[in-house]
Amino acid sequence: MRQKYIAGNWKMNKTKGEALELAKGLVAALKDGKNKYLIAPSFTNLDAVAQVVKGSNIRLGAQNMSTDESGAHTGEVSVLMLKDLGVETVILGHSERRTIYKEDDAMINKKVKLALQHGLEVILCIGELLEEREAGKAEAVCKAQTEKGLAGLSKEDMKNVVIAYEPVWAIGTGKTATPEDAQAIHAYVRDVLASLFDKEVADATIIQYGGSMNAGNAKDLLAQKDIDGGLIGGAALKVDSFEAICKAY
Which CATH architecture group holds 5-246? Predict the structure, then answer.
């Protein structure tokens, strides 16, 4: 049975002091938790937060990384730097990276391969825009992003890959896909994984929901057969709201 996996993406929030306070609160609140947990602070807070979560049941994640290990890439952060800080997981292909910063599937796939090559777990984000859903293209978009994001990966690689379905229209808007709608896409993506690899890989892969999950809707979403956790944004910025989601199932 797949383990529930709750990940907090802090995005561009929290000063160093605020990040330390939140991390310490979460370590205390989740110390007896039975699920898998992750927090992903901003790059500037990774080193400090790493010291807080070390030895706890909370994984340290990064929100992005470069396509290259080193070199003339002003403003970028490499996989080697992340590993040096104790990062275990990296979030790639987030809708904000795709829509605002124009990262395409080929770039994301390059990052996925590099992260896996260096032993990091990858959370690969996929999801459709509102106009794509309204045009009946949600499944096609998710299929294409999954196939292109995972291109060239082996069944062994997939042991370190998590998929996060995040309908773009439900991120930071307060809108949430119904549990039934979210379940339908999750089940569809699992079928895509089975066609790319095999049923064993599909059944083992954790697929998180990442569209405005909060303390109020987490229980119903997490009760769905193919929803294995959440990639949490705003609700991950306070101990009580993130703890409530983590303990909702």
Answer: Alpha-Beta Barrel (3.20)
